[in-house]
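Hypothesis: this fold can be encoded by more than one sequence.
Test: take the structure tokens below, design a sequence, compare later.
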């Protein structure tokens, strides 16, 4: 978990700072919740994709080692 904190922050800060700058700078109040919700869904999709990539990277060496011993 500690290893992934730095990379997550480097993605998180620019994303959410941009989202909230747009939220409070451009969008009228009645659209802010919908905009922020759409961005949250996008953020969760991005984090899920990155998590799946990390899992695949961790499993790849184990599969290679298992495959070479057969």
């Amino acid at each position: 978990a500690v290893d992934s904190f730095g990379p997550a922050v480097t993605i998180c800060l620019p994303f959410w700072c941009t989202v909230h700058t747009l939220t409070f700078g451009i969008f009228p109040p009645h659209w802010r919740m919908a905009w922020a919700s759409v961005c949250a869904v996008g953020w969760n999709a991005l984090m899920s994709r990155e998590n799946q990539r990390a899992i695949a990277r961790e499993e790849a060496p184990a599969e290679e080692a298992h495959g070479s011993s057969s």
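The mean pLDDT is 88. The radius of gyration is 18 Å.
Hypothesis status: open.
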